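Supplementary Note 3. Input sequence used for the single-chain structure prediction.
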Amino acid sequence: MTVLRTPESRFEHLPDYPFTPNYVEVDGMRMHYVAEGPEDGPQVLLLHGEPSWSYLYRHMIPPLATAGLRVLAPDLIGFGKSDKPTKIADYSYEGHVRWMAAFLDALQLERINLFCQDWGSLIGLRLAAEHPDRFERIALGNGGLPTGDEAMPRAFMIWRAFARFSPWFPIGRILDKGTITELPPAVIAAYDAPFPSARYKAGTRAFPGLVPIAPDNPASEANRAAWRVFSRWEKPFLTCFSNRDPITRGGERKWQETVPGAKGQPHVKIRNAGHFLQEDKGPELAELLIRFVRDDSRQAE
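The predicted structure, written as discrete structure tokens, is reproduced below.
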């Protein structure tokens, strides 16, 4: 397997991203993560999706850390400052779950408060279901855990075809189209930074095709097993979906109805935010997470 590493010079002078890089080795590859806030604070794991990276959380990390939380924001393999296998066939759903499980092991993370979105949720929710003792609570925004047993939105199928067939795959512009806020050129360039050429984009191209859209998908049964775990999940589970995401809008209802730990939680519909709600409403979302983690921590004391 050929693996590329984005030159560090590509990440110089990114707006609003002053964080010290940290790295662990996963399956012989280097995985990058941001770690901010007191080391003894409640741990908050922020998982990004497709085709973003930890830069997506730049407006959330500082307020979370200032509130006394230990914030961990990794870049998935193939994204951000993490190493990038060069072939689409190098990536699989199971492989991403395995890589993130290795990340949790490398940092010996326990009592995790998870926030996940997009593919961060497909991976993060599987991790929580398969390692429930390591997770304290979950906040889910604009994501889910598809099994292929239900039809996917038309907007997703268009996106899937675009990722597979389009000769043009402009990461920053894709992020811009997924927000209500118009991203400035410097921010669009920051999202492009990890991907100097098409050879670096195999991971971004792969993800849409890995989503289970048919019942016999290789990941379908594992995701069904995860749903069975969540049907018995008593720990706090919060949904904070945005109202202007054509792919996941309305998907929070199934979680609220299925997960016992979602009952009585202060679920939030985030207004005037698109798919990448971290871009549109980052500070607001950070405040929701602070209250969710802190209020629940006090109740546990």
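The chain has a mean pLDDT of 96. DSSP finds ten helices and ten strands in the chain.
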